[in-house]
Amino acid sequence: MSMGFHRVMLSLGWLALSGCAASGAGVVGTTKVSFEDTTRHRPLVTRLWYPADPKTKTKPTTLDWIFVARGVPGAPMAAQPEKLPLVLLSHGTGGSTSSLVWIAEYLAAHGYLVAAVEHFGNAYGNNTPEGAIAQWRRPVDLSRALDALLADSRFASRIDANRVGAAGMSSGGYTVIALAGGTYHPERMGAGCQDNPTRRGCRPDARAILESLPDRDAASLSYKDPRFRAVFALAPALGPGFAAEDLREVTIPVGIVASAQDEWVPLADNAGHYAELIPGARLTVLPKGGHFTFLAVCNDQGRERAKDICVDIDPTVDRPAVHEQVEKLVLQFFDTHLK
User: What is the DSSP string of 90-131?
Assistant: First the structure.
């Protein structure tokens, strides 16, 4: 790989040197709102997390019936500071606004407003073949959600519009790279699948679906949004859909973390590929853990009924411990570039 990016190997031993994950953390509140992208006739269900009044009592909760959470629904927002940096979150294909609750709560506990946007047609309970192929609709979702938040009297006065970032996992990783200026080319992705049709994520009907989409010509447009000052991608997907020239317009800071064992989006073709082609991108590689290690920790019901996403492919992986490491990386990244 070229020297255009920084690469770090992160081991579990790093945790012992990094201090307590909750150091300096505050109480987190959460709420769910619905916006509408009237131009595209597309709903934008959005879950928010924020620093809550420190007097708020907390207790463990569950989101989407499987993800362990601690944010307090409807808790009053902390009075200070008046303006907060904002990070928008993008879930992976078939995911939900709760998928990255662990990152959302950690950032909110350290002074951020966080907003996770549901990608209609490519989300849990609403995942269509068309939505899975039309990935370019996703970055517009985050831009429109940002528009809505900045226009909403409930939130606008608390958002520092000069300190906005985004983070996403899997397809959400692609989403934030697109917001940074990357332009996706599905024909490049298709060529890779022709060479290796059994590769996970390749669909034999992908070309037919693509050609049937009314907005297929929008696939390779630029969705760069200059309001986003830094982006962080976790196990980003769709790497084969980008060549060097497709990432030249990415000039903001980009952080990337991925697992060396990722079974869905192999490191070399995705996170490593992005990091090599994006100047200055910082890649951190976890030696263990699969693709879904980056999802929230599941309860017992989830580990029993949703093993594919709740039980890691490597039984020696401690998902909460991995999250503690990655939380610190994400917080340090946004503190550096937004604060």
Answer: E--TTB-TTTTHHHHHHHHHTT-EEEEE--TBEETTEE-HHH
Distance CA(85)–CA(277), nearest Å, equals 28
On whether the CB atoms of residues 186 and 219 are closer than 8 A, the answer is yes
Provide the token pair at 178.
């697109």
Token digits of residue 96: 């939900």
CATH of 6-338, picked from 3.40.50.1820, 3.10.310.10, 3.40.50.620, 3.40.50.150, is: 3.40.50.1820
pLDDT at residue 250 greater than cutoff 50 = yes
pLDDT of residue 201: 72
Q: In terms of pTM, does the model score above 0.90?
A: yes
Find the Cα–Cα–Cα–Cα dihedral 66, 329, 8, 100, rounded to 10°: 20
Residues 6+ apart with CB under 8 A from 4: 276, 277, 278, 279, 280, 281
131 near 210, Cβ under 8 Å? no
